[in-house]
Amino acid sequence: MDWNQILDFARGPFFYTALMVFVGGLAYRVIKVVSLGWSRDRAPSAGSKTVGVAKSYAKGFIVWPFIPWVKQTFAGNAVTLIAGGVFHLGLFAVIFLGAPHMLGWKSLLGIGWPTLPLPIIDWLAAAAIAAMVALAINRMANPLLRKLSGPAEALNWLFVFLPMVTGYLMTHHLLFRYETIYALHVLAVDVMLIWIPFSRISHFVFYFFSKTIHGAQFGKRAVTP
Amino acid sequence: MSREPDRETIEQHLKAKGVSRRDFVKYAGALAGTMAFCSIPAPVGASGLPEALAAPTPDLTPLIIKALEAKPRVPVIWLEFQDCAGCTEALTRSQSPTLGDLVLNHISLDYHETLFAAAGFQAEQNRDAMMEKYYGQYVLIVEGSIPTADNGIHCTIGGRTAIDLLREAAAGAAAIISTGNCAAFGGLPKADPNPTGAKGVWEIITDKAVVNIPGCPAIPEVTTGVLLHFLVFGTLPELDDLNRPKTFYGQTIHDRCLRRPFYEAGKFAKSFDDEGARKGWCLYKLGCKGPTTYNACATIKWDAGLSFPIQSGHPCLGCSQPNFWDGGGFYQGQSAPLGRPGVAAVGTAAAAGAAIGAGVATANRVKKKQAATADTGENA
Hints:
By secondary structure, chain A is mostly helical. Chain A has helices at residues 3-11, 13-35, 49-62, 78-97, 99-109, 118-141, 143-148, 151-171, 178-195, 203-220. Chain A is globular, with a radius of gyration of 20 Å.
């Protein structure tokens, strides 16, 4: 089996399977979490739930990366927050605004959108990869984070890092032939897709659950989240 | 390779055809350029050239001249199986005086079903006689894939299967060249579901080196370049892991594409008649397979260096890559997955996941309730 065949397998049947596991796995997790239910809140409403939710999102991820002092960001672990922000920004730019990725979305969703030039995507990708390395070092160096980290955290990091680093090598035609690194990149993405629903990377769904629920609760009690 | 009295040398042949010495020397220089030689291939001793000529030299033109002057024409047997004769068309339609045209004078094409005037048993007899006379000396060029399903009956010539003819001809060949994607990797006949069990030559002939010159069709200059390499040096050019000559297949179309700067700058044509298309921007979003396609189209080009598909405004189809027919739609983005799951498949996966989730949640609730009841029982 040569790398072209591996690439076809990774882009074809394996991707298909991974996508099905991803969709099925997320549905499983969402239903399971929602089914936990929550107790009825009988307190009289003192404010607007909607406003609370809006504020929660604004401070959570719209304002925070750009105005760090809003939540006394640096009071905690600055590396986690800065590198975490850079990583997420780079990740989103690369997977949604990189031309090759947009074409992948287009083939799945049927709609396309404008993309950013390669040099911009490239620098953002490099920044995201550097941020991941910083986060890994920080996690190993910080005694508290080290206590919180187990094999699952290491795998979370690895399964996100592999697609990013193989994608970067592919773009720059480094070390491998194009079809080899392309196959490795897609294989890494497939593995990540399978891993996501059953790991904390699923926070890309559940983050919105908690932001909405907490925002509504704070809003109802008229406290600023 | 010893010179036989009954075989005229290439130079004698060209002279008889009215090619002047000046054109001959120019041609030898052009050949050295096409094959991008910067030094003599290592096993040059096997070529039978004088030792003085085998010494490394920055200019290979004199070497090529000497070789062409001294060597007899190479007998070539050209077999066609599951093909469209497109590679032959490409090779023979080169405008005179191109390399392809001249190379056809360098080889003695002793059997070629599309080109020869003879037919029937006479033609077959001639081929058999040539194969016997030049056993171990002739070059075998194969065009078209070889069907292997149902004992190979899907392609028979003169009552014999392609696989049988190939094995027979390969046994006495000094070199085997697969021209075009079909002969190299199975090509169109191999496309899913591959009803004839089509295979490339190198999957069948495994005891000899087979040079793959994939493409649909193969670039004529590449075929002639490989032939000339064999003719001049008596050896095959350096090959990559898919048995393609590195000189011609060392880089991707994307690497050498004239539209590459637009890719880097993020300027893409989004349809065949938009502003980007008119301005000659990158065709990546129109499905160009250039980044994964190894071939020399972007450098050698077609029709005597006139143009190549991307230059003419069409994305690369990746026709020199294995299984390119099954590599996703021609106009689908190269980075896109090969298949798109239908709504039903995604819905089924989601429903299955949700059902399992609901089942587990219910089981958890029952367990919780039982635990609570047990608790209450203990407390009471």
